[in-house]
């Protein structure tokens, strides 16, 4: 296969694979009664640790702040997350999971670990590392494009 064909297959395949993986995850999340949109910040909080700043969760989740605020409102109303003033910066909000939220996040995370193991069981660590380099290249291109658009908009 030519380099151009490989690049086409990778870029197209990532879109398709992403759709399939999201569908698998959505089915799993539905079993827990939570949407993918709400699960993302919930999982980011458990991964980043209690007391994490709201802006750090937004960055880790790839969300704009207003979108995250709406999701956090839902998670707080459902009793999964609590917001507080950041002790180091009263302007910032710190996020923590409630016991109920931690239980849900850990159950979801455990199921996602199982799913990843199942899907990737026949892929060698070297192949996973190569795939991760490819994903990172696309992530970096997206960040670069976004920063160019932001700087162009402010000119």
From TrEMBL:
The record's GO molecular-function terms, alphabetically, read: DNA binding; DNA-binding transcription factor activity
Keyword Transcription regulation assigned = yes
Q: Where exactly are the transmembrane stretches of this chain?
A: none
Gene3D superfamilies with a match to the protein in the record: Winged helix-like DNA-binding domain superfamily/Winged helix DNA-binding domain (1.10.10.10)
Q: Does the keyword Glycoprotein apply?
A: no
The record's InterPro entries line, in alphabetical order, gives: HTH_MarR-typ, MarR/SlyA-like, WH-like_DNA-bd_sf, WH_DNA-bd_sf
HTH marR-type domain residues are 1-140
The Gene Ontology biological process terms listed for this entry are:
response to stress
Name the UniProt key words of this record, in alphabetical order.
Answer: DNA-binding, Transcription, Transcription regulation
Coiled-coil segments, which residues? none
Task: Kindly provide the name given to this protein in its UniProt entry.
Answer: MarR family transcriptional regulator
Q: Which organism is it from?
A: Pseudomonas turukhanskensis
**Which lineage do the record's taxonomy fields give for this organism?**
Bacteria, Pseudomonadati, Pseudomonadota, Gammaproteobacteria, Pseudomonadales
